[in-house]
Amino acid sequence: MKRLFLLIAVMIGILTAQAEDYSYLTFETTDGAKVSVPTSSLTITISGTTLTAGSESFTLSNLSKMYFSTGDESTPTGIEQLKSVNFDEAIDIYDLNGRKVAKDQMKKGAYIIKTKQGTFKIVVK
Amino acid sequence: MKKLYMIFVAIVLTIAAEAQTLNVRVGNVTYRFPAAQCGEMNYANGTTLTIMDKEFSLNEVTNITFDPTEVVDNTIGVTYNGSTASVVVAGNIAQYVTPTVSGAHVGITQHDDLAEEITYTLSGTSTDGEFYMSGSYKATIELNGLTLTNMTPVYSGAAIHIQNGKRIKVKPVTGTTNSLTDAANGSQKGCLYIKGHAEFAQKGTLNIVGKVKHGIKTGEYFTLKNATINVTSAVGDGINCEQFFLMESGSINISGTSDDGIQCDIEDTTAGSTGETTDHEGEDSGNVYIAGGTITINSDAAAAKGIKCEGDLTVTDGTVTVKSSGTAVWDAADAEVKGSTCLSADGRMTLSGGTLTLTNSEAGGKGIKTDGVMTVGGNANLSVTASGPIAYCSSTTNTTIMTTTTSRTVERLSDALKTSPKAIKSDGAMTVSGGSIFAKSSNHEAIETKSTMTITDGYVYAEAGDDAINSSGDFTISGGYVFGNSSGNDGLDANGNFNIKGGNVVAVCAGGAEVGIDANTEGGKKLTITGGNIVAIGGFERGSTISGGTAKSASYTKGAWYGLYNGSTAAFAFKVPSNSSMGSSMVVYTTATPALNKGVTGSGTSFWNGNGFPSFSGGTSVSLSNYSSGGGGGWPGGGGRW
């Protein structure tokens, strides 16, 4: 019985390894940016110079490659590098518990700061 | 425990179902790439996409989809559906093939750098489609419920055309029925044409209709295991191949052909036939081998052959039934009258097993014709009948075919102007060393060899309107059971010497000047008897030498059963024929003093078409008289042929 379990475990291991779950198709553009789209029910069409994969569209000449991936390898696009923010223009500042704090009350820690330029997450060291 | 297994199976199935496949569809062709094999798929210049070294022009790609279906490497599926067809190509071979689909006309080119065998699976139905494949690497064609008719050929006009000189396996999938019909306006050599070696296997059925030439044509050898092939119509041969034809099992049924049922040609006509080579390797060419299975051929084409080979024909097992009813014709190219034949070999014919039932009902038709040596032995079981009259024409300028049942009508004509119906004709020496032969020819010899005849064992029953058995050379019997029953000439006739050293022989002549057993005395030849158990109705040839035993003569009654004793040992029982004209008395010979009983009851397994038994009982003793060979074989003491 023990042997059987062992055999089953090994076989499942092998099969799992063979049937790797490629849930994403990742596109890479010529500038190195990556966009992963889930392959489930995915259809890719090409019309003129545009390739459409689900909700994503690419200009064909910008595409470098694509490959299957097990996870989402998209280059982050929701977080931008903070270049310069004028805290004087801060409208609201919140700590991570959602409490509104005054600028001079900020100690070490992470804060959400809302400005005219946008909302940022900052860390005070 | 059972539960555990079920869980295990469920897990495996679940895991298997997770396989991811990328499908690139280009028109009606879909290339299927397993995700695990794809690696990086590269775009170039916004115009191409390369996957597993297969380059796609992006402007030709219809779409790319994904599904969890498993991809089997080295496979191509072609599904016909009315006026369209779809092709699915496994990703690992995508770079090595170029498929083309036009309606339901599918062509696939295998590239020269292909190094793995592809299995093509064809299925579905089309009333105007075809499959064409070219290449230089071996392949397998599976027919999985395919009904394909070619009406407007894009390629040759064949329903399936394999322009590939390598080994091609054709597998009608077990349990499926597949039907092919070629185009009536094509240039194809066969409804199913294979340029290379064709190996048919599996237990499915393949139906063929050939509207231009042959039903099946292979440029090299043809082999069959298990499958059933039915050719119901062909303008040429039912099956035509080169190199060799080998049937190991399965069934072939052929009818409605305008030429031969099965024909095997010599591939290299300059080199000629090779005879059998070891394992059929090398240049085995022109030869037919039947080692099992069932062949049934109904051939009604003029001068056609049921089975014809330009080399040797060998039967070791299986069941072969050929009915020929093709008329005789004047062959202008060869300047001779030609009749139909059930089994024909330009080389040797060796029958050592199997059951062969061959029937030819037409004028000048033969059951078996071989240009070379003929050998019958082992467990071969032959029943061969030629019931037609003689076919002839009056001259090379008046070639209207006429028929006659009288040999005298044509005896002054050259051989080219006539063809005689014979059950078995061998231009070479004929040897019977076993098996069983029933040969009947209503209007000519039942068995004829243009060389020597040697019988050492087996059972032979020959019944004819001419000599029952005739040899142009020496005739030797040293064993076996031989019955020659002639209603129009000699029972057993040698144009050379006739030597009987053993065996069990009954010979019946037509009376008059004929004898039961004849040698060419006029030509300086002789009948010499030194052994055996012999009955000759019509007696022995004049001047025969009889030693090693005793000959006696007796009267007989037509249709009666007799038992021959060799001394006190029962030799065999035989039934005297009831021919309208027969020799006037019966001569018997045995190595001991012969004795004869009339009205015996035979026992054991019968032979000689039911006219003989190995043992017997009862009956009443027949009075025997002394016989003198110098006096011939007519009435006791004389009256025979001089």
Secondary structure tally, helices of chain B: 3
Q: Domains counted in the coordinates of chain A: how many?
A: 2
Decide which structural class fits the backbone of chain A. mainly beta
What is the molecular shape of chain A? Answer: elongated
Order of helices and strands of chain A: HEEEEEEEEE
Short description:
Chain A is mainly beta. Chain A has one helix at residues 2-18, and strands at 24-29, 34-38, 43-47, 50-53, 56-59, 63-69, 92-95, 109-114, 119-124. Chain B is mostly beta strands and 642 residues long.
Map the helices and strands.
The complex is a heterodimer of chains A (125) and B (642).
Chain A: H1 2-18, E1 24-29, E2 34-38, E3 43-47, E4 50-53, E5 56-59, E6 63-69, E7 92-95, E8 109-114, E9 119-124
Antiparallel strand pairs in A: 1-2, 1-6, 3-4, 4-5, 7-8, 8-9
Chain B: H1 2-17, E1 21-26, E2 29-34, H2 35-38, E3 41-44, E4 48-51, E5 54-57, E6 63-67, E7 75-81, E8 84-90, E9 97-102, E10 104-110, E11 118-126, E12 129-135, E13 139-149, E14 160-164, E15 167-172, E16 177-181, E17 190-194, E18 197-200, E19 205-210, E20 214-218, E21 222-224, E22 228-234, E23 239-242, E24 244-247, E25 251-254, E26 262-265, E27 287-299, E28 305-309, E29 313-324, E30 329-331, E31 336-338, E32 341-345, E33 349-351, E34 355-360, E35 366-370, E36 374-376, E37 381-386, E38 390-392, E39 402-404, H3 407-410, E40 418-419, E41 422-426, E42 430-441, E43 447-449, E44 453-464, E45 469-471, E46 475-486, E47 492-494, E48 498-508, E49 517-518, E50 527-529, E51 533-537, E52 545-546, E53 550-554, E54 561-566, E55 569-575, E56 586-590, E57 594-598, E58 601-603, E59 612-613, E60 615-617, E61 620-621, E62 625-626
